[in-house]
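Hi R.,

Here's the chain you asked about this morning:
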Amino acid sequence: MRIAMVGLGKMGANMSERLIGAGHEVVAFDLSEAARKAVGEKGAVVADDLDDLTTKLAPPRAAWVMVPAGPPTDSTIAQLAERFESGDVIVDGGNSNYKEAKATADRLAKQGIGFVDAGTSGGVWGLTEGYCLMVGGTDEAVRVVEPALRSLAPEGGYAHVGPVGAGHFVKMVHNGIEYGLMEAYAEGFEIMRAAPEFDLDLHEIASIWRSWLLELTERALRPEAGFDEIKGQVTDSGEGRWTVEEAIERAVPAPAISAALYARFASRQQDSFANKLLAALRNQFGGHAVTLESGAQGLETSTPTV
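And here is the predicted structure, written out as tokens:
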């Protein structure tokens, strides 16, 4: 199929490349000329602006919006809506709050435009390993973009989980769970570090334990990875906060996720081994920036192996 990708950051660019590799045609646009050029070199059809993008799509048009959540996403969707027609579909693949999805879908529905909220997980690994896609929307809207969804995901990694809003809701909870898992690993490794009588090799331990996050821990702790230069300050994308808010609103006890969120807040006020490791895991998982100690020369960013 031919689909537009609006937003060519580390996620949008890699998703475009994966779609092209699967035989789809991608019409790519970003405000950055350098980003447009880079994706064009991978085989995308580059659009100069949203008007050009629209003319390069055939009905039913489909555009995947992969820009930061909030005003950038809202503005992009509104601009596409001015150019799209009945039967066309817009996908929001960013980390938007699920509560905003229904209002967006209702506005687009007045013009007959379909809306799909796609919770997208995979980070910098998605290009080679595939993206876990949790999708919300009507059957009709999802059907238009389903060929792309199946190509972006690995086998068994895509599901139409419910109506509009369901996709971002499930992705929100997924991220909240990851907060708790990462925090537990970080705390456990700090407990082992606090036992000098055993002279434990934490990198070796991470290499023999088996899970994806622990594989990333092993990479982060490699001698050449620059771990000692990382400052233990961990940001949050907002979805962990929303998960805790939902737990409170629905009277669901979620102490581990809540504690993990507050630990991230605390990391911005102090520096600790556990938070350095948490920051390194986030960097390894999604290529997110880390704050380096003063005078540090840089940090190795791992690349996927196949």
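One quick note: The longest strand covers residues 114-121.

Cheers,
M.
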